[in-house]
Amino acid sequence: MEGSEELESSLLTQPWASVRFDESTFLAKVCFRDTGYILLISDLSSVWYESADVEAVGQRSKELNKRLTVHVSSFLNHLCNLMCPLLAGQPDATTAFSCHRSASGLRLHVKSELSGLPFYWDFHCCPAPLEMVFRHLVRPLIQMNLVLQCQVQELISLLLQKDAEIEDYRENGATLSRDRLRTEPFQEDTFQQNLMAKTLPRICAADEGREFASALQQLYTAVTQQEAKQARKRRCSEDDVDTAPIAETTEHPHPPPPSQEDETTSSSKRTSPASSPAQKPRLPAAKAKPKKAKGLFS
What we know:
298 residues; alpha+beta; seven-stranded antiparallel sheet; 8 helices
């Protein structure tokens, strides 16, 4: 379980990449470690994943590659060398990928070579749980959107400041040496209208919205790294709360039995004359009557 959680945490900071299988476009991300691998793949209608440990990889490799007798780590390393170039947009020409979707999941088939022998592999992907979809896709995209909104607002503010600076130069007699560099003052409303009318339809055209440009991949990685950092802080805070001493529970519910010295001291106190019940209480001393003063003629 710990190995699976560690793999998913490592997968979180891996950026999504656009890939094509059988004329279909997918977004995918994968993470390989010595303990196994985890793959997450989506066609933006469904999301599938597979997490396999060393034991599962070894068992499947025996079933699919009976002629190969290499160590499990070699299978994992070879799979990593096949998948990583694919996600980087540089697939190996000698490797073939195909996928089959069904109601129960998605199977990604890989055909290649290893040590001069045919190598086959099947990724058996099942539907991803909602928590994984939100963690790897929905929340990062929302955070990326907020970051990009802040960036746009800062750029708009900078453009307005530059327009004010240029206008000040112009009012003080400055002129352009090259007329082709002249620009119109920035109008935010016009800019937004052009964005909605021209840029948005082009982005939403076939498959263009599924591309993760390198700049967006870097932003996704930065956002998820920050998310992972915050998650570690939350876990540390929860651990500190769980281990903090509580005053009400530090006292021993059952006090230890008295020692022999305590018993002896207690016994001597009980048998001392000062504490004996048979001793008569002392009566209060009577007050002495004041003597009358004797006068000279008394």
